[in-house]
Fold these 4 entries.
Entry 1:
Amino acid sequence: MERLKNIWLDGKFVPWNQATTHILTHGLHYGSSVFEGIRFYKTSNGPKIFRLNEHLKRFFYSARSLGLKIPYTQKTLTAACKKLVTKSGMKDGYLRPLAFYGVKNLSILPIGFPIRVALIPSLWPAKKNVLNICLSPYIRIHPQSTDVHAKIGGHYVNSIVALMDARKRGFDEVIFLDDRGYVAEGAVANVFMVKNGTIRTPKVRSILPGITRRTIIELVRREFKKRVIEKDILLSELLTADEVFFTGTAYEVTPIARIGTKRFAISSMTKRIRDSYTDVARGKLARYRSWLV
Ligand code: PMP
């Protein structure tokens, strides 16, 4: 990983080598961390952080779901994110807010544990333009096992084992079903299908309610005068789609060429949605500039 000069840790900008934690860190042992993934993009007005407010809001929501009291306000974190982007000197890249329980003892229940907070800038690695995915043999975490709408570190064990299995079988990514057998999402993305001109996506139940998902639903409504249908979708329904795509901070809007042996076209609707998302994120559409910080 690129050793960027500055990381914001517990209220201070520190060099890479000092952004460390002790081996007894609770978050390391038990997955008791929360995080975000945020992109910033080059625009004609300098680098802009995309949907920072929404990401930080979800960061605080995730923290609350783990009883983690972040000892900073959203305003303080916003200012720190802006400073980090400036200090990084990068025109576009990625920001990783992270909060976790620190060191006290080996107890599972983190009562009276210190809370650590970091903001980590990173370069953005290029991603594939088209994905081949498979059905995961694992199901998405049961929505009553924990708060699945929170972005909790420990949840990602579900994504890790599924992705490892997919890579072994030669696929880029996965589609998870939920506990009832309905389509949930990818390992780090939400899924949409297009059929006969209608756009559908799984309801918010067993999925992480993606900020990109919400952005696309709004863009489709405002730009294409269409409503995205949020519903329970069976795998058999997904496989009859004309087009399928993933959305997420990492993938933005990325078409899916194949689910298992079933191939999909990459047609006009996915391309139109992708182009409009790209324009909005890069500040090319004035009416969405409020989404850029
Ligand atoms: N689902 C999961 C499990 C994810 O990790 C992500 C990435 N945060 C998403 C969906 C997409 O969310 P967002 O659009 O907010 O990046």
Entry 2:
Amino acid sequence: MDKFRIIGRTPLSGALAVSGSKNSSLPAIAACLLTEEPVTLHRIPEVRDIGTMLKLLEYNGASVERLPSGAIRIHAAKITNPEAPYDIVKTMRASSLVLGPLAARTGVARVSMPGGCSIGARPINLHINGLEHLGATVNQEHGYIEAAAPEGLRGNTVHFERITVTGTEDLMMAAALAKGTTVLENAAREPEVVDLAHLLTKMGANITGAGTSRIVIEGVTKLHGAEHEIIPDRIEAGTFVIAGVMTNSEIIVSNCVPEHFASLLTKLRQAGARVEESADAVQIRPVGKLRAVDMTTEEHPGFATDLQAQFMALMTGATGISFVTENIFENRFMHVPELARMGANIRIEGKQAIVAGPSTLTGAQVMCSDLRASASLVLAALVAEGESILDRVYHVDRGYEKIESKLAAAGANIERVA
Ligand code: EPU
């Protein structure tokens, strides 16, 4: 199992370029199941979760080709196997994104139930309820969800009792091929949902309202091939911006859309950081000590839960007490004991972590537990005195493209040890 060796306290400089969004690529790949024509996707990041999703589509019968340009061409001429098996779903919960497309295209879908996850229970009941509203019969047996709609799906109003990102995406894809009009109420407003709507529209779907909490989809009988460039990864961008601020560096985070992580930039400014955005980059300038600020995770456009751990790492070095509240997932503080091993002073009370700073972090051997928790440990190690060894970096590899090469090119002392 690979590890990272990081020697802290080297400033960053130059630029950190952001890759395509993992969480936009996953539904975009699933959307390729909706048409018998090829779809070409640009800027798909080379990360483990994408490899898993592509493997799933191949299992479903699609062909996947990486073009010399780096783009990926997916051709689901025929669906030979409308199933997401346990072995794939257990490694990546976003596999449930094929439920809607498979049911819509073939009238049947068999998807393994995801089971537990390190950041929370993560049920998919809202995906299932939504499909039932579109006329599918859904049964759960032997650990699998089986959806059947032999006569095709029918448009309807679906009110999500809780905002769900992949649930909104799953239903939007299903509704694209349903008969009649579907209205998704209390829909997720994340940029990834908007990006998927753009792709589906290019494929011939009729969608309005993506980016608001009410999305209207007029079903069509057929979708066709398309070409689409995935939006930049706002979580990778935010992680890099925090890296720049934490290391007190002068650095640019480029190829991103700062508007997609505006709530992070606002918080950073409240803490005293100097961050200036243009249309596609953020310039960070050194300031010295930061002030502690409170932060609460919310659905978009609120502060992203996927940046909570990284922000907490930042707060360990800020002066004062910071209350970090996690509202989206019930168990997303796995990084806290590891940050504590590096010298952070953090207490957990229910869904709140109370960070007392500033702490001087020191390098230590720490364990990665999930994708974003790992990112927070990378950040902490960048400012810690001495050497840190991060174990189980396969968690980082799930969602960050070549993070160690990117950081090393910007001056960090980081290497992968096999
Ligand atoms: N929820 C339910 N029932 C459902 C679906 C969700 O109760 O059927 C609950 C979840 O348990 C959670 C909340 O609703 O408490 C929100 O979950 P959501 O469905 O929005 O999460 P997701 O779609 O499974 C996506 C991202 C996550 C990100 C969350 C929240 C992808 C592939 N994943 O997950 O990304 O944290 O939205 O923004 O888009 C990551 O990249 O590290 C990651 C975990």
Entry 3:
Amino acid sequence: MKKTIAVIPGDGIGPEIIAEARKVLEKVAAKYGHTFVYDEVIAGGCAIDQFGTSLPKEMLEKCLASDSVLLGAVGGPKWDGVAKEIRPEAALLGIRSALGLYSNLRPARLFPQLADASPLKPSIVAQGIDLMMVRELIGGVYFGEKRTVTLENGERRASDEMVYSEHEIERVARVAFETARKRRKKVTSIDKANVLDSSRLWRAVVHRVAEEYPDVECSDMLVDNTAMQLVKNPSQFDVVVTENMFGDILSDEASMITGSIGMIPSSSLGEGTRGMYEPIHGSAPDIAGQNLANPIGTILSAAMMLKYSFDMPEEAERIEQAVSDTLDAGFRTADCMSEGMTRLSCSEMGDQIAKRV
Ligand code: NAD
């Protein structure tokens, strides 16, 4: 099979981790007889430097013309002061919006080999952590109207509107129930229905969709309680579905309890098969350019791309197994290093995983 991948290395550690994902993809291509064509997209801070904007139109067009998009990370302190319309993050929102990617899937799974790296007590970790966070991606407060006004007394007031329509909730709820059907058949819907109107609508629509999935258990949980339950009893969760901002925050918490933020992949999908795949972490400016980053989140994102966008489940599993085998062999990058393990650089980790594909 021949597939065109729009590759966005981005900023900070982005180019380093993307290089390792490509290394692994090339091994898959050789082993299974596929051709992956990489169309490099300049977006994020580096695009601001080169073109004056984080997502030039021709770069967005490359994404629209591809079979799928693979992203490293964008942003960094260098661009913290730029106008909000051209900020590095605006490139991501622009691509998600243009591609209609309304659902973001982030697995938070503890590799048993990394149990030591979890900040949770061994007695909690021993129960296992294997949940899928389904986050609504192109609605809610990040996309609502934003206003900063100066009042008559000179004080400034800012507001961000959190808006959801029924169809936006319904389609992401459906993704959660379909995902649960392929897993342990349990959906927990997260909201703040005791306070927010948008959450009350969220809850009502999720319940309506749940009726179409009688084989899937569905329950609600308030977002503040969820923040506690994720550290107290994470094994209770299978699929967690929530709106954009709650999902942004909770998925970082969920990733941390599994050991390292560098391990977690994500996929963003809309109606078709084209998606955007990226590790959940940022550009890690503190370790950029030092060959220290953990490339596993990006490599597993490439595996998700093969599974969800290219219908290559066997190839995806091959990558996941190669990652697991590499951890079994005692290899770690600095972020999840523990006693008795062998410490590898970013590129050495890519080599070891590619070798085991
Ligand atoms: P971050 O995720 O970049 O880093 C947080 C911490 O985790 C740092 O100590 C970093 O060194 C470490 N870390 C992250 N990824 C790692 C990896 N693969 N291997 C080893 N260690 C890793 O978050 P931040 O510091 O809050 O943000 C840095 C920049 O990234 C900001 O400009 C932010 O806006 C941007 N950002 C981008 C994305 C994205 O591109 N999707 C997401 C989040 C943040």
Entry 4:
Amino acid sequence: MKPVRLALAGVGISLIASFSDAAEGGRISLDSVGYLPARPKKATLVGAAGPFSVVRLRDRTVVFASTAAGPITDRDTGDQFLIADFSALSEPGEYALSADGVSGQSRFDIRADVYVEPFQLVTRAMYLWRCGMAVEGEHQGVRFGHGACHRDDALLDHVGGRPGRRPSVGGWHDAGDYNKYVVNAGAAAGVMFRAWEDFGDRIQRAPLDLPEAGGKLPEFLAELKWEIDWLLTMQADDGAVWHKVSTLEFGPFVMPERENLPRYFAPWSSAATADFVALTAMAARCFAPFDGRYAGECLQAARTSYAFLEQRPRNHPPDLRAFNTGGYDSPDADDRLWAAAELWESTGENEFLTAFESRLSADFPTPNNRDRANGPITVDADWDWSNLRNLGLLTYLNSKRSGRDPALVDGVRSGLLAAAEGIVSTAAEHPYGRPLGDRYYWGCNGTVARQTLVLQAAYRLTSEQRYRDAALDAIHHLFGRNGYGRCFVTGLGANPPLHPHDRRSGADGLAPPWPGYLVGGPHPHADSWQDDQDDYRTNEVAINWNAALIYALAGFLDD
Ligand code: 9MR
Ligand code: 9MR
Ligand code: ZN
């Protein structure tokens, strides 16, 4: 679908219609889930004249009226937009915004707990992704579920030629497919552990209604344990970590318990091994207060694989020639850095700190150069599974432990603030407040959510609200303030995706898709998203994207 240009008589400017079908009378794009009472509230108007108003639904009273600012021009496309700012409206309630020149109105809520239910929904979606057990859930009156699947995982043929199986049951399916990939487990669970460490108190007060509710672990950690238990099965006897458990070709669109293709361990990789170290080290310290024995097991597993890697300093990509499924193959420097950071944070042992700091200096020599001491160390504003360096940097920066090199700490701090500042201005300049600006690639919606890790870290250092407000921009964008005027999460908000590339949703015979899943998003262009099951490039769902959204929402559970 190409944007349609409208020439509105009397407005005097050429206005651009949306990427969506709602183009005819212009469009209002806003966070269709809602806004926090005290924080900024903006909508993007396309094809509007200027005046807009907000009606309180309870009594149909106009509670706010103003004129949208603009037009502002999208630097890349030349398209023009107006920005309706209704930040001053702070009374909790249910509302609808309408604008002159645009037919229809757009609903939203204002509430301090407006992101609690979305948080529960997208976190429960991780549970619904569980492999190896039957799962079920209800959403908007529809029951979703599948039977116990993949109880035979997995075959050893491709890891050393030994015939037979070794148990690797459990974990989460990766995405719309049912395979299980260690590197993406790192990206997903790593971000969720960070959510736990940053916002655990508040997370703990949001019930998830998981089978483990009421047990000795907080539910959120119980969900993570489902993944970590599986991850532990990916460690070979020598400490190498197999790259994935997968079919040889992607399976058909059937329910998981009916996918009966053989599934194999794939050969080890150093990136997967390092991600395993980082995750099991994080698990060790997050589980320690609740289950010391399990924490001990995780730490021992981390040490074993770390020692294995120390003997093999070079990048070792996985040999995936037998497989035509997801690769998740990228060099291991970021993974090794992350592994050292987490082992240090969990143990306090100097060996790991030294390893982390020398890697940091070697990759980014600035702080060792006396002339440029305290120069910024790059912190990425735009990152995904192939570059998990930020997870290590954030752990290092947040640490309460002593012994860090102050020049490196300063370098990371200034790099972080520079990255966060860049994100803030990118969001401010973007017509739809998109903190990733005009970068569109596979899974970019996940990155938009993931940017909030950097923003929240900057907020923690400075207490400056603009970092949190840019994190809210990310949420607003994903929940409807985008070129489609649609929420990108299944079962949530306005006009959400109905046809994600998700085998369960395609195969269960139910009309609505499985709820709580963030779709990958448009690429290569802003208008390339299609709500089409066949379009796995823009409309798949994946654990690393949902995990990032879990983090984004966890930051705003009580405002
Ligand atoms: O369903 C697969 C999806 O999970 C992957 O992300 C995607 C890219 O690796 O591939 C999908 O599988 C497609 C395959 O690559 C080509 N034939 C059609 C498959 C979709 O049904
Ligand atoms: O998220 C992955 C994206 O960064 C890659 O560009 C893409 C192609 O390699 O693969 C994506 O991951 C898919 C994985 O390979 C298989 N399961 C579904 C994942 C999401 O589409
Ligand atoms: Zn399964």
